[in-house]
Amino acid sequence: MDGTPLTATEFSSAVTAITGAFGDATRREIYLYVRERGDDETGVTAADAAATFDVHPNVARHHLDKLAAGGYLEIAVERLKGASAGRPSKRYRVIDAGSPLALPVRQDAVLVSLLGRALAILPSDQVESMAEEVGTEVGRSMASTLGSAEIHRSLRSAMEVVAEALTAHGFAARAERSDDNNLRIVSEHCPFGAAPIEHPVICAVDRGLVRGMLGALYGETNAEMKSSLPMGDAVCITDVSA
């Protein structure tokens, strides 16, 4: 920093960057775990973190990728010996365990706030369907970049792909069956932050993302959001049925 005072927007974005990286208790613990292993050049895998903190590997990978995206960790990609196919091994480590933390200024919160305000000025009887349609279109586009045009025969397998794609975009999502045997996608993190508290219609975008990706990967489905992190629930749950 050059000593120049931050503007209100820059300060807000700086706070968002810090809380986005370290506001989650598990993510803080995972970061400290990786940092404490700074002398280990092999680094930490998502499987290591998942086992250590008793979380789903997708959740551990989300936290590690979030820390890497913020510049707090670096990633080394290695293919396991003898493996000719499959996902390469990603190992995470701090660039310099002795260096102080950098606190980059990011504008994500501003963009999400603008999205919420833009939706808020639309007619109330149309805004939710419009927001979901936007999410659906984006979901279809995301599905087209997943590396396979094959239509999945199983709704569950398609949902696994969708959950992994959502996790890559900050949702920490997983596909599972509920106690009443319904298929659902559970997200433990909302990349939109607190914006949906003021503008709940943003959650319709999430629902559209799921519907759009599943429509491209499997076929038409019904997606209904049962709970939402921004509205005070423990996780976001989207029930899915063919």
Give the strand content. Answer: 5-15%
Number of domains: 2
CATH superfamily of the largest domain: Trafficking protein particle complex subunit 3
The count of helical stretches stands at 9
Order of helices and strands: HHHHEEHHHEEHHEE
Question: How would the global form be characterised?
Answer: globular
Reported CATH architecture of the largest domain = 2-Layer Sandwich
What level of helicity do the residues show?
40-55%
Q: How many strands in all?
A: 6
Strand order of the largest sheet: 3-4-6-5
Round the mean pLDDT to the nearest integer and report it.
Answer: 78
The CATH class of the largest domain, by name, is Alpha Beta
Terminal Cα separation, in Å?
53 Å
Q: How would you describe the overall organization of this protein?
A:
The protein has 242 residues and is of the alpha+beta class. The protein has two domains: 8-93, Arc Repressor Mutant, subunit A (Orthogonal Bundle); 124-241, 2-Layer Sandwich (Muramoyl-pentapeptide Carboxypeptidase, domain 2). It contains nine helices and six strands, in the order ααααββαααββααββ. The chain has a four-stranded antiparallel sheet. It has a two-stranded antiparallel ribbon with strand order 1-2. A hairpin with a 5-residue loop joins strand 3 (173-177) and strand 4 (183-187). Helix 3 (46-53) crosses helix 4, helix 6 (124-143) runs parallel beside helix 9 and helix 7 crosses helix 9 (202-217). It is globular, with a radius of gyration of 19 Å.
